[in-house]
């Protein structure tokens, strides 16, 4: 018996069947690839942390080249000496602190729970680095990154990334020339934790002044720059108690 393909019931049944088939296939692929996706996320976080402390494969002044995925795990173990979790007054070691989801911790804090703050202590060429993860809001969506400090609260390196900033404008926060401007800046203004502002009126386009808590803004990216400034300041304040112990003990 021939099927009447012009009936509404046929269209509905066909659509339902296709949705079920496509949904099943997507669920299968998502399940089968979940392990690989998590592994890639883990390696990317390790690459970003190492980049902030100057462990990378940059070859020229303009490149942003991470430690390759085939050796990033061993380099992470080599350079990151401690991973800490700060939870209120408690500080514990945790070898997977870098996997803590900052967005979930922010949500937990808003609900009245104690936020878990991961912090990484690295060593390179005899120097110690204190690496703070950060998360904030840009123009369109989330921005995030890492800032590496020495015991004088001077920035030794940063890494920034974004989810949906405008190409050629706000998206340039992950460009080498912008990130390099932060090196040598202090997060302190006297004894206050001021962070570092991305300032349009910086009057220091070559970024030679390192005691003004400012870097030059990106052209056409005022809101992204303001979000980045807020992210750094808020993140620094979250870690202020721990950072004070570093300053007092140095």
3D architecture notes:
Keywords: Cell inner membrane, Cell membrane, Flavoprotein, FMN, Ion transport, Membrane, NAD, Phosphoprotein, Sodium, Sodium transport, Translocase, Transmembrane, Transmembrane helix, Transport, Ubiquinone. Belongs to the NqrC family. GO terms for molecular function: FMN binding; oxidoreductase activity, acting on NAD(P)H, quinone or similar compound as acceptor. InterPro entries: FMN-bd (IPR007329), NqrC (IPR010204). Composed of six subunits; NqrA, NqrB, NqrC, NqrD, NqrE and NqrF. The protein is of the alpha+beta class and 250 residues long. It has a domain of 168 residues. 38% of the residues lie in helices and 23% in strands. The protein is built from 6 helices and 10 strands, in the order H-H-E-E-H-E-E-E-E-H-E-E-E-E-H-H. The protein has a 6-stranded antiparallel beta sheet. It has a two-stranded antiparallel ribbon with strand order 7-8. The protein has a two-stranded parallel sheet with strand order 9-10. A hairpin with a 2-residue loop joins strand 7 and strand 8. Helix 1 crosses helix 2. The chain is globular, with a radius of gyration of 23 Å. The mean pLDDT is 89.
């Amino acid at each position: 018996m021939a099927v009447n393909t012009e009936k509404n019931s046929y269209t509905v049944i066909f659509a339902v069947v296709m949705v079920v088939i496509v949904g099943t296939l997507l669920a299968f692929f998502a399940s089968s690839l979940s392990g690989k996706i998590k592994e890639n996320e883990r390696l990317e976080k390790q690459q970003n942390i190492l980049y902030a402390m100057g462990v990378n494969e940059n070859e020229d002044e303009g490149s942003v080249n991470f430690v390759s995925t085939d050796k990033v795990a061993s380099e992470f173990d080599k350079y990151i000496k401690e991973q800490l979790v700060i939870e209120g007054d408690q500080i514990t070691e945790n070898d997977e602190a870098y996997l803590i989801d900052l967005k979930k911790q922010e949500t937990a804090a808003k609900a009245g729970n104690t936020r878990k703050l991961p912090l990484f202590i690295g060593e390179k060429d005899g120097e110690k680095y204190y690496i703070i993860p950060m998360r904030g809001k840009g123009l369109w969506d989330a921005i995030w990154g890492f800032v590496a400090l020495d015991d004088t609260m001077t920035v030794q390196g940063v890494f920034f990334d974004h989810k949906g900033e405008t190409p050629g404008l706000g998206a340039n926060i992950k460009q080498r020339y912008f990130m390099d401007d932060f090196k040598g800046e202090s997060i302190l203004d006297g004894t206050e934790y001021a962070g570092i502002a991305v300032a349009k009126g910086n009057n220091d386009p070559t970024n030679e002044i390192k005691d003004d808590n400012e870097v030059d803004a990106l052209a056409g990216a005022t809101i992204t720059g303001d979000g980045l400034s807020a992210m750094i300041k808020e993140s620094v304040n979250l870690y202020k108690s721990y950072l004070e112990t570093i300053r007092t003990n140095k």
